[in-house]
Amino acid sequence: MATLDSVLHLALCSRRRLEDVVGGLPWRYASLLDRADARAESGLETHVRLLLRSVGIRVEVQVQISGVGRVDLLVGDRLVIETDGREWHSDARSFADDKRRDLALVERGYLVLRLSSAQVMFESELVLDVVRRLLARGEHRWAARHRRAGLAVHL
């Protein structure tokens, strides 16, 4: 799935051509292209999206937030999930930019969950458990206290 997302995101192949390729695969692969998302910018992001959706958690991909820019994933109104692979997040500049964005998100009332590649790939059950607990507590939704504080913003 990450490969399909990447091919679509990078426009390496048309969707029509991919439909032809996937159509020639055994039937169990037929729905792959239906779940592909060209907005996904990394395999880690794809993995988390599919993990959450596999248990019925609704996830938005590459959501634009005013004053911050695009975030990898948004669950509910305010739970931002960022996936950080070493390729794009290891130098001092990207590290500082991530911290600036996190601060801007928190200032606007968002809850930020920043996941490493190791957490995504090797601790996915823990990640899923944490997200489920946040959802059970309603942390993914704007509450009256957020609205009173002027934090419940609209995208």
From TrEMBL:
Domain Restriction endonuclease type II-like: 45-132
Pfam families found in the cross-reference section: MTES_1575 (PF18741)
Keyword match Hydrolase: yes
Name used for this protein in its record: Endonuclease domain-containing protein
Organism classification: Bacteria, Bacillati, Actinomycetota, Actinomycetes, Micrococcales
Entry superkingdom: Bacteria
Gene Ontology MF terms in the entry: endonuclease activity
Record keywords: Endonuclease, Hydrolase, Nuclease
Organism of provenance: Herbiconiux oxytropis
